[in-house]
Design goal:
493 residues, 22 helices, Arc Repressor Mutant, subunit A, 3 strands
Length: 493
């Protein structure tokens, strides 16, 4: 091997690194980014384009982890007049820092950004920014004061460009009270805000507030009140995918408690399917409830449901529970319910699991009916592990009810104390395959219709012909938004 081919380790001088071109341009500061967002909101307000305000909210989510107290203070001083009530109120809520730590906007480009003072959208955005910062810093008392002040200000506004910011404020208003275990205090305010949003035809606000009210009721197990509100609230086409997913989840929980398992299953599975991939916690909750509902319907979820990426550990208790129901072993079901009692209580599914006992017995009885053409009621009680005072009488009543419900095809010989199973016929001679195919076709058609409805087009796209420069600019904006969508969805859920 030639000598020059041998790699040398630190024996030759390293080549000089090329001068970094990017180092000449310093990084843009957080305050400058906030000023750009304010300019975007101002442009949306003056042109009455709600999409620009929505984009400003998304960009704020991206900056959320980088915002410090000095950045918020500097931005508030830039965006609000020093003599305004909002400036005095928000400045008092922010923590005081030394002057030496103030962020000097030296890294900002030479172009200076200025905005028009007095715009309600800018003021509401300042409230939102301070509220998010205080929640992240776990200063919940100050966050409550900020949220109450922002809601009081919103009651005097009726502008479509404020609706997007207002919906986010409603969410964090409820969130901070939930963090302090005082959701009941704001239920009246949320109802009043929902009535106001309905009168103002603020559909995004109605969506958000309806979900917050449903969450408020369900937090205190007030399912009847939640259903009354849901049934009487006006319904319209969903504006936010996140809010629609939440609505489906709450609807599924209400339907489950009301024993309407078929509708509950459809709502929960649809919510899990529509939820963004980044919203892992939300999807886990949807799958937990969907598994219980499917078990209550007599179905056994596929193993792939429990093996989804990032969900295996969280769904382990429900996997063991499903296995106990599938086998029809009542003793194993009891041991699993006791083993994971704390988990089921935290998920608020313990009461539903109590309902599953009858399904476990019925599954075990179905397995016995398939395995034996004739078996005594005493042996059935022994195999089902019935621990009552008179297990044979209980087994007889259980078998009689299963025959009446059509769960098994058998007869009871009362004289000899036997259960006699009938021969199983060919399932393809019945209507069951047709029903199964029909449900699959309906599911696919429903998904196609929802996908068509979810498609959005820019207004007047059929009338205006865009220039190449406008198309490039719009494509660049869409790429930026797609880049931030994952973080935005994670924050929302």
């Amino acid at each position: 091997m030639p000598e020059e081919d041998v790699p040398m380790l630190d024996s030759s001088p390293q080549p000089a690194a090329p001068p970094p071109a990017a180092a000449a341009a310093p990084a843009v500061s957080t305050v400058h980014h906030l000023k750009e967002i304010a300019a975007l909101i101002e442009a949306g307000s003056l042109s009455k384009e709600v999409r620009r305000v929505s984009r400003a909210v998304r960009l704020t989510v991206v900056l959320r982890r980088r915002i410090a107290a000095r950045d918020v203070s500097a931005f508030i001083a830039f965006a609000l007049p020093a003599s305004s009530d909002a400036y005095a109120r928000l400045s008092a809520l922010l923590p005081k820092e030394d002057d030496t730590e103030m962020d000097v906007d030296a890294a900002a480009p030479a172009t200076q950004i200025s905005i028009k003072h007095g715009l309600p959208e800018i003021e509401i955005y300042c409230y939102l920014l301070v509220l998010i910062f205080l929640i992240d810093q776990k200063k919940y008392d100050e966050a409550k004061a900020c949220a109450n002040a922002s809601i009081a200000r919103l009651k005097n506004l009726n502008r479509r460009t404020v609706d997007v910011l207002a919906s986010r404020l409603y969410f964090y208003y409820s969130y901070v009270y939930e963090l302090t275990n005082s959701l009941a205090e704001i239920r009246g305010n949320l109802l009043a805000l929902h009535r106001m949003a309905t009168l103002h035809r603020d559909e995004l606000g109605q969506e958000t507030l309806l979900n917050l009210l449903l969450r408020n009721y369900l937090h205190y197990n007030l399912y009847d009140q939640a259903e009354k509100l849901r049934s009487k609230a006006p319904r319209f086409e969903a504006h936010s995918n996140q809010q629609f997913c939440r609505y489906l989840f709450y609807l599924g929980k209400i339907r489950t408690i009301q024993l309407e398992y078929t509708d509950a299953k459809e709502s929960l599975l649809q919510a899990a399917r529509k939820a963004p991939t980044a919203a892992l916690g939300f999807r886990i909750q949807c799958n937990k409830w969907a598994i219980i509902v499917r078990l209550l319907l007599g179905e056994i979820p596929e193993r792939t449901v429990f093996m989804q990426k990032g969900m295996k550990k969280a769904l382990t208790p429900y996997f063991e529970l499903t296995n106990a129901v599938r086998v029809g072993d009542l003793e194993l079901f009891r041991s699993v319910a006791d083993k994971f009692a704390s988990t089921f209580s935290a998920d608020r599914t313990r009461n539903l699991i109590v309902r599953l006992r009858h399904n476990v017995i019925r599954t075990g009885l179905r397995n016995i009916s398939i395995s034996y053409s004739r078996i005594s009621l005493a042996d059935i009680a022994k195999k089902l592990r019935l621990d009552s005072k008179d297990p044979v009488a209980d087994a007889e009543s259980i078998v009689a009810k299963a025959i009446r419900d059509g769960a098994i095809d058998a007869t009871i010989d009362h004289a000899n104390g036997w259960m006699v199973s009938k021969e199983t016929g060919d399932v393809y001679s019945t209507n069951e395959p047709q029903i199964a195919f029909n449900s699959r076709i309906a599911f696919c058609l429903n998904m196609h219709n929802e996908a068509v409805k979810a498609m959005r087009f820019p207004p007047n796209s059929h009338k205006e012909k865009e220039s190449a420069e406008k198309r490039r600019e719009k494509l660049q904006q869409e790429e930026e938004l797609a880049k931030h969508m994952a973080e935005e969805d994670d924050d929302d859920f």
